[in-house]
Amino acid sequence: MGLSEQQGEQLKSVPYADLLTVPYKDKGRGIDGLDCYGLVLEMCRRADTPLLDLVFDSLKTATDENGNARAYINLREIPKEKARAGTIVQCEDNDILHIGYMLDKIRVLHMTGAGAKVTPIQALKNIVFFEVVK
């Protein structure tokens, strides 16, 4: 089950200012450094919508339509119209797959090589929206 509208509205108040000073660190999962997925994991933890860690959790596998085993992650793609605070955003940044966390309908918190930053969603390319499935 995804987030209710009420839960989505409550996510607007998830604190993140302290994360703006955390440096980038490859596979980072702590206050000493985060990568883009680590930043999203931390925001989901703070919002009480835990997300599985693709790097460090023991992931379940599921079989796709072609019979190939794939790692299961507790995300579900949603249409743009349902995107709101707490939505996970997959996009491209300099032609590299990237992920961020929507703070509201117009801003995304994401990690760059220079650290965490808030970017208007209109500045991102090839966006796909996801919600965390509990």
Sequence of strands across the biggest β-sheet:
5-10-6-7-8-9
State the end-to-end CA separation. 6 Å
**Rough outline:** globular
Which percent bin holds the helix content? 10-25%
SSE-based structural type: mainly beta
Low-pLDDT runs of 5+ residues are: 1-11
Gyration radius, rounded: 14 Å
In short:
The chain has 134 residues and is mainly beta. It has 2 helices and 10 strands, in the order αββαββββββββ. It has helices spanning 5-10, 36-46, and strands spanning 29-30, 33-34, 61-63, 69-71, 75-78, 88-93, 96-102, 107-112, 115-120, 125-132.
Q: What key attributes describe this structure?
A:
disordered N terminus, single chain, 2 helices, globular, 35% strand, 13% helix, mainly beta
Describe the fold and architecture.
- The chain is mainly beta and 134 residues long.
- It is built from two helices and ten strands.
- It has helices at 5-10, 36-46; strands at residues 29-30, 33-34, 61-63, 69-71, 75-78, 88-93, 96-102, 107-112, 115-120, 125-132.
- The strands form three sheets. It has a six-stranded antiparallel beta sheet, covered by helices on one side.
- Strand 7 (96-102) and strand 8 form a beta hairpin.
- The protein is globular.
- Mean pLDDT is 85; it is low at 1-11.
